Amino acid sequence: MLKHWTSPADYQQFISQAASSLNDSQLKKFSSYADTIAKLTSLNLDPLALPLAPYYSRTGRPAIHQPEIFRSFILMLDQRQTSITSWFNTLKSDDLLAILIGCTSDSLPPLGSYYDNAHRHQNTG
User: Fold this and answer.
1) 106 contacts: CB under 8 Å, gap ≥ 6
2) What is the 3-state secondary structure (H, E, C) of 47-86?
């Protein structure tokens, strides 16, 4: 079951609020991701929610952070990384990259959720 699907507007608001709280050094680094930020903030993942819903259980613990995981995979490839585990460790140690997927470093989806997501959707299309 999909518990919460972050809308593009909510994601853009999160990015704006997070950017406004950065110090000068962080803001400079954050600005270096301008092309990536443009990609991620223009991406509307809403059309995925309905067709993917049947791939989630209707009982049990709801899946959360699914749009964030999709954004994370996009950012992972944008950063030329191919190992999910390595990428997850990078996100845990880089607050700015965590912000770019729509999370704080202490609210990242767990590593297992990345593998669950990839496994769940490998045969959907």
Assistant:
1) none
2) HHHHHHHHHCCCCCCCECCHHHHHHHHHHHHHCCCCCHHH
CB-based contacts of 27, cutoff 8 Å, min separation 6:
19
CB 97 within 8 A of CB 62: no
Question: pTM of the prediction?
Answer: 0.87
Residues 68 and 102: their CA atoms lie apart, in Å, by 6
Q: Name the average pLDDT for the chain.
A: 90
Q: How large is the average pLDDT for residues 17-42? A: 95
**Degrees (nearest 5) of the Cα angle 109, 112, 118?**
95
Contact 55, 103 (CB under 8 A): no
Q: How far apart are CA 6 and CA 20, in angstroms?
A: 20
- Asked if 102 and 6 count as a contact pair (C-beta separation under 8 A), the reply is yes
Measured distance CA(31)–CA(29) in Å, rounded: 5
